[in-house]
Design brief:
Blueprint (H helix, E strand, L loop, with lengths): L13 E10 L2 E10 L5 E4 L2 H10 L4 H5 L2
Antiparallel strand pairs: 1-2, 2-3
Length: 67
């Protein structure tokens, strides 16, 4: 299956959601990232997992900091 690439698409849009979950006495942050063009999404508990998803979608770290 071909993965969309930020380099091959004129516009790449992601929706990122964060929310806080309470488990017993502790709270933790969770998130979900969705690539709008493909509909693919990934839940995550840490930012490294979110960045990994972005890389799978063809976005490099340098593209994220190059604005």
């Amino acid at each position: 299956m071909n993965q969309p690439s930020a380099e091959t698409t004129a516009t790449t849009t992601f929706i990122v959601r964060f929310w806080r979950e309470w488990t017993g006495a502790e709270a933790r942050w969770r998130g979900r990232i969705e690539h709008v063009q493909s509909g693919q999404r990934q839940d995550f508990l840490c930012l490294d997992d979110m960045l990994r998803f972005l890389q799978q979608m063809g976005v490099t770290l340098s593209q994220l900091t190059d604005y």
